[in-house]
Design a protein that fits this description.
single chain; alpha/beta; Isopropylmalate Dehydrogenase; 2 domains; twelve-stranded mixed β-sheet; 12 helices; elongated
């Protein structure tokens, strides 16, 4: 299989350490990846952290396969300034954005199997003209899939998809509609079949209100918005249950009854997933023409450069990207 493109992320965060530690963990078994990063900063970071992770420049992604067992292959993306751990630098924002753009282009052209993105700091990128709420929306724009993208968080314990994502709670409630739930669920069901190998996906629809509205006593969105979406999906042959009371649908027993939880807003799904398995959670963007995953955590500026970053989520993201790419192929 072709290598996976791993983006830089914010160079002041833990992405560089994660990249080095992921290579150390995967060099003997794969999946193979190529970092789109500044090789000088990675080599300096390896020396600072006392990691045995030699860095080698490559000019094309296909060179990574032969290099990977012996050194971390890097497609150079030069930084304007040497990064200071924990302190993002707007001067380096163009390199961060360029790393994402180049990785996406390589995936779209079939030069790499997938894209895995290290965490970014959006505030630092805004100074360079970045105008997107996050990676997901940026990748959708780069691949011509704006409006089709859906964010899934996946771990061995649970998969969740928020219908509304990067918006305030007040705005999320205003955005919620039967049509949005339908389009999200259709994308999720198709992805579970094609990318996760689940022939008959089981979708559990969360309620919005406490106790799923208590038959209208605590809110009527379950009846007026969510139930019509469930009925339409069932009419299309999808296996959908709900609306489930949000406070009981994430127990161990309940999780065994579905393959994914469709949640109405961001924290309704992400809090249980990260509570259950923060270290192995993976952010997967569904609905794109390319494969994209990411660790489910942020830049962790508070521990950048200390040697305490845990690469488990990045390793899980690389492994899941390889599995999805293989199924698509």
């Amino acid at each position: 299989m072709k290598p996976i493109a791993l983006t830089m992320g914010d160079p002041a965060g833990i992405g560089g350490e994660l990249t080095l530690r992921a290579w150390i963990a995967l060099r003997g078994r794969g999946p193979c990846f190529v970092a789109l990063d500044d090789p000088g900063r990675l080599a300096a970071l390896a020396t600072h952290l006392r990691l045995e992770a030699p860095v080698r420049d490559v000019q094309q992604p296909d060179q990574a396969t032969s290099v990977f067992p012996d050194a971390l292959p890097v497609l150079p993306v030069r930084l304007a300034n040497s990064p200071c751990p924990g302190t993002p630098d707007a001067a380096n924002a163009p390199a961060v954005i360029g790393s994402i753009e180049r990785a996406t282009l390589l995936a779209a052209r079939g030069k790499v199997a997938a894209v895995v993105t290290n965490p970014i700091n959006k505030a630092a990128l805004y100074h360079a003209g970045f105008s997107y709420p996050g990676h997901t929306e940026f990748l959708a724009a780069l691949t011509g899939a704006t409006g089709k993208q859906v964010m899934m968080l996946a771990s061995p314990e649970l998969r969740v998809v928020p219908v509304t994502v990067h918006a305030s709670l007040r705005n999320s409630l205003a955005m919620l509609s039967t049509e949005l739930i339908l389009s999200t669920a259709r994308t999720v069901a198709a992805a579970l079949r094609a990318d996760f190998g689940i022939a008959r996906p089981r979708l559990a629809m969360a309620g919005l209100n406490p106790h799923a509205g208590e038959q209208g006593a605590l809110g009527d969105e379950e009846t007026t918005i969510i139930a019509p979406a469930i009925a339409a999906l069932r009419a299309e042959g999808e296996g959908v249950s709900g609306p489930w009371p949000p406070d009981t649908m994430f127990t161990a027993t309940a999780r065994g009854r579905y393959d994914v939880a469709i949640c109405m807003y961001h924290d309704q799904g992400l809090i249980p997933l990260k509570t259950l398995d923060m270290n192995h959670g993976v952010n997967v963007t569904l609905g794109l023409p390319i494969v994209r995953t990411s660790p489910d955590h942020g830049t962790a500026f508070d521990i950048a450069g200390t040697g305490r970053a845990d690469p488990s989520s990045l390793i899980a993201a690389l492994e899941l990207a390889a599995e999805i790419a293989a199924r698509r192929r």
